[in-house]
Amino acid sequence: MNRKPAHTHTVPPSTPDLERMAEEALDTIPKALLAPVGNLLIQVEDFPDEETEREMELESPFDLLGLYRGVDMTRQSVADLRSGPDMIFLYRRPILDYWCETGEDLFAIVRHVLIHEIGHHFGFSDDDMERIESLE
User: Fold this and answer.
1) Total domain count for the chain?
2) Domain interval for residue 101
3) Residue partners of 91: CB distance under 8 A and separation at least 6
């Protein structure tokens, strides 16, 4: 059984802190979900860029906690030319804002966003992701 590391924060974590937390969170995600994941990179940025804001039709850059960028497994073909690895972007400031507003555990929030975005990689529904998230 994977155990969640204890995280107690009194000040907002820096970008490198959040990157380390995301790596720790990956270690707690069920191996069945991660086994088929190949070239998937995690990038932490403060906010989505302006192009992403327009594409996602965000009212505010705080509206997006994470984003999967790439071709999900349900739409990939062996004939596809890959321009690089698929990526999960974690947006630090919106995550921290959500953390402050809800009082939820920051590690749990980061893990939830990762599972949600990895789920998009496989074309899973929100219900599928909720079931995966409940596995330990």
Assistant:
1) 1
2) 15-72+83-134
3) 44, 45, 46, 47, 48, 61, 64, 65, 66, 67
